[in-house]
Write a structure and sequence with these properties.
861 residues, five-stranded mixed β-sheet, binds O-methyl-L-tyrosine, alpha+beta
Length: 861
């Protein structure tokens, strides 16, 4: 069947069940680039081998290429070129294909394939970018050895990098040009190919592996950015060591390069031995990067490095298996970050992200299983479900099997599939074989979409407690009826009188309804369930304010304490939204106790005393009323601020540092201090703006400076404009910091935020061409519930305008902005109509990309 053109009118749907092994393999590829930003020539020599007994022609993907020559075994050959696919009849079982094409990196605004960013040339090939560089079977199950030659102007491109090892270099005959050749000994799928050419300098270091090999490390940046690469380098070395210690994985080449680029669609890319990064995940110093930025850098550097084994040495058979590498690698980077800092705080952050990004996805029109069944555009499936829910699946396996069997399963997986392109099923089977456990039912976690709901109820009669547990997996698009899944629930009972722990166990809820009987209780008990967030589910209990307050102060699992506090706050806020008022005292008393508890880590306190976000509250209402939620939350914030004012002032004074340090204790102190400042402002304390301005002016680091700016940006004190102007003047030449200036204003809780954001979109520093800038304004605004859902509908119209404008340049990044509009079912009729109208306008636009088409049309369904 011909591959139907990617026209939104009749979009081609790719289905998992249609997978067939490749008909032709390409064991070797030689590439020769004559680099020029306006017109780069790419010559390729493919050694092709027929795979199996068939007569099918060789099939090469080719997208947006100007084809100059195609040869078979040295002779010009007839070929068919239709719908971005070249077909060639190769009479024998092998042959040599030579192609020559021209491409234009300078006008490549999609940032897929070979493109220009800040004067350098770089590549992005995952998922299907390689076909925009040279004709090739662009699928991850074709593994190839690469030899790459690059030549170009020495002045513009003094540094020439590719995967593997440099093997030769020299001057060309032509004046001012030079060349370099690289060879990668490891066969790889083409999505891991990379090339960088530019005027770059390196922070160089090395790492000695546990078997004693020295690996040369280099982080390549523009000259002025060199001082901002230290944290990334330290993170890389820590990640290399951690992977040896925890997973027994050693690096396998003599060289590891990282390059930072300003224009990048995602966070970073794990190309074999040549990782390419969005500069926001490399560059940091105290003056320009927050603690959150530092943490993000460590996490992403580790993530890409870990892919060398989970993704590169063992890769994906097809793109439906994306979570095989991504879910596993996210779990690995989460565990690394937990080991480098506070495990409890890291778990809270990861769960908060899962709930903010993945739960709504799983509950809406774009819900899909961790291993999807079909797609129109694979770029749309780099989702929180594939990444973050995928990581929760691996974590559940770790919990169910225990650390030793889990590690044995990983070892078996790597040993038996090294150098192969495999499936999620292969991973689960390795876990099964190494552990001896039956994971048949667990496989449902890969195939069923939707967040399971678990009802948990404790019924006690004297010494006997019965825990009644029920599960339900909600219907999702294309999946009406669901089967019960195995849900690993860590649970415990605490004595309400003494606080003593009476039971602590892992219970696997694998039926629709189960009962657990616990005997021998000596006092009334309180149930703690889904401790450490052992399963990615929504738990409903009948625990009242007293039980929740008790657990928030007494549970010995920090996550469960945090969770109890969140639940107490959420119940209070929900009640306030529905009834117009609610008793604030239980929350205030629980926060008072936590704040005053000297035994707790300030970083944990900071997380525990934060109210759930407006969006999170909305996710728990039948219909979202953004204004009522905003009012209820602000009222509770004000009550907490006022009643506990002296405690906030104490916290603010206590957690002051003499000078900046980056370590878990200092980070926790900074976070708690700015949260205390936020509560003082919420209390309406007359001196709050002045304190914030003082913090802003005195700050010796970006965390304190941006923290103060954020507090001021939510208010209307005169200090607000002064601080925003000072911030802009100080950082107008630093793109990454300017992004913070845009996002701080887009996230403001002020009533005039929609108008402010519209004006910022006309600011000379705003551009649709840079994904970071687009996300910092438009992405941030779309998650600001009150502002985006302004009753006038102007937020929806604005977002649709931005999506349509961005789509012309960069469909992938434009498509990522669509999901907030797809949540129309969650809002009242007036808003739903306006949201649908915005989506309909998008879908009706001629020339729409298939990326945006898929997201917008599915969002309407
Ligand atoms: N594999 C990368 C994510 C990534 C995916 C697609 C890209 O293309 C624009 C870029 C990066 C990761 O998981 O880090
Ligand atoms: Zn990844």
């Amino acid at each position: 069947m011909p591959d139907v053109a990617a026209s939104p009118a009749a979009p081609h749907v790719t289905r998992r069940e249609d997978y067939r092994p490749p008909e032709w393999l390409v064991p070797d590829l030689a590439l020769d680039f004559t680099l020029d930003a306006a017109r780069t020539l790419v010559r390729a020599r493919l050694e092709v081998v027929r795979n199996g007994d068939h007569k099918a022609p060789l099939r090469l993907d080719a997208s947006g290429l100007h084809i100059l020559d195609v040869r078979l075994d040295g002779e010009t050959v007839n070929y068919w070129f239709e719908n971005d696919v070249i077909r060639i009849n190769v009479p024998g079982d092998s042959g040599t294909i030579e192609t020559e094409v021209a491409i234009a990196p300078k006008t490549n605004t999609q940032l897929m394939g070979l493109y220009e960013s800040g004067g350098m040339l770089c590549t992005q090939c995952e998922a299907e970018g390689f076909r925009r560089i040279t004709p090739f079977p662009d699928r991850p199950d074709v593994l190839t050895r690469y030899r790459v030659r690059m030549s170009g102007h020495k002045a513009a491109y003094p540094i020439l990098l590719s995967n593997g090892n440099p093997v030769a270099s020299g001057e060309d005959g032509k004046a001012g040009t030079h060349w370099a050749e690289w060879e990668d000994p490891f066969p790889k799928p083409c999505y891991l190919f990379a090339l960088v050419a530019g005027d770059l300098v390196a922070n160089r270091d090395n790492f000695v592996t546990r078997s004693g090999r020295t690996v040369d490390l280099a982080i390549w940046v523009r000259e002025g950015d060199l001082p901002r690469t230290e944290h990334a380098m330290a993170s890389l070395k820590a990640a290399m060591k951690w992977d040896e210690q925890v997973y027994g994985r050693e690096y396998d080449l003599a060289m590891f390069n990282i390059v930072a680029v300003d224009d990048f669609n995602f966070g970073a890319m794990e190309n074999k031995s040549l990782n390419i990064f969005n500069s926001r995940y490399i560059l940091a110093d105290p003056d320009t990067a927050t603690d959150m930025d530092y943490d993000g850098i460590a996490g992403v550097v580790a993530h890409e490095y870990f892919h060398n084994w989970s993704g590169n040495r063992v890769t994906c058979r097809d793109w439906f298996q994306l979570s095989l590498k991504e879910g596993f690698t996210v779990f690995r980077d989460q565990s690394f970050s937990a080991d480098m800092g506070s495990e409890a705080v890291k778990r809270i952050e990861d769960v908060r992200l899962l709930r903010a990004a993945q739960f709504p996805e799983d509950a809406g029109p774009l819900a899909h299983p961790v291993r999807p069944d079909s797609y129109i555009e694979i770029s749309n499936f780099y989702t929180a479900t594939v990444y973050n829910k995928g990581a929760e699946l691996i974590r559940m396996l770790h919990t169910i099997l225990g650390p030793e069997k889990f590690r044995a399963g990983c070892d078996l997986y790597f040993a038996s599939h090294d150098g192969e392109a495999v499936t999620c099923e292969d991973f689960v089977r390795a876990m099964e074989e190494a552990s001896g456990e039956d994971l048949a039912q667990f496989r449902l976690w890969y195939s069923q979409a939707g967040t399971p709901k678990v009802k948990a109820q404790l019924v006690q009669e004297g010494a006997v407690a019965r825990v009644l547990l029920e599960q339900e997996v909600p219907p999702t698009p294309g999946q009406k009826a669901k089967q019960p899944m195995p849900i690993p629930l860590k649970l415990a009972l605490f004595g309400a009188r003494t606080g003593a722990k009476h039971d602590d166990r892992l219970f696997i809820l694998d039926g629709a309804k189960e009962e657990l009987v616990i005997d021998g209780l000596t006092e009334p008990a309180v149930l703690s369930v889904n401790r450490d967030f052992s399963a990615p589910v929504i738990v409903e209990t009948d625990r009242g304010a007293a039980d929740l307050a008790f657990l928030s102060g007494r549970d010995d699992d920090p996550f469960a304490r945090y969770e109890a506090m969140q639940q107490l706050m959420l119940d209070t806020l929900k009640q306030a939204v529905s009834n117009g008022e609610a008793a604030h005292e239980p929350v205030i008393e629980a926060v008072r106790e936590t704040l005053a508890n000297q035994a707790l880590d300030p970083a944990f306190i900071a997380e525990a005393v934060l109210l759930p976000s407006e969006a999170f509250i909305g996710d728990h209402m039948k219909l979202v009323d953004p204004e009522a939620i905003h009012r209820a939350r602000e009222a509770l914030r004000a009550a907490l601020g006022t009643t506990l004012e002296s405690l906030w002032r104490d916290a603010y004074a206590t957690h002051v540092a003499n000078r900046y340090e980056y370590n878990p204790a200092a980070k926790g102190a900074r976070r708690l201090r700015t949260i205390a400042l936020g509560y003082l402002a919420a209390a309406g304390a007359a001196d709050a703006p002045a304190i914030a301005k003082r913090q802003y002016d005195a700050a010796d680091n970006m965390t304190d400076r941006q923290g103060a700016l954020g507090v001021l940006a939510n208010g209307d004190a005169p200090e607000r404009e002064a601080a925003l102007a000072a911030f802009y003047d100080r950082y107008r030449n630093n793109g990454l910091v300017l992004d913070k200036w845009f996002s701080t204003q887009a996230l403001s809780t002020r009533a005039d935020t929609p108008a402010a954001v519209e004006a910022l979109a006309r600011h000379p520093d705003f551009t649709l061409a840079n994904p970071n800038r687009l996300r910092s304004l438009v992405g941030a605004f779309s998650v600001n519930q009150r502002a985006f859902h302004d009753a006038s509908g102007r937020g929806y119209a604005f977002l649709a305008d931005m999506i349509l404008a961005a789509d012309k340049l960069n469909p992938q990044t434009a498509a990522k902005l669509v999901p907030p509009l797809g949540r129309w079912r969650r809002f009242g009729e007036d808003r739903a109509k306006l949201m649908r109208a915005a989506l309909e306008r998008i879908v009706a636009t001629p020339g729409l990309s298939k990326d945006v088409y898929e997201q917008a049309s599915k969002s309407l369904a």
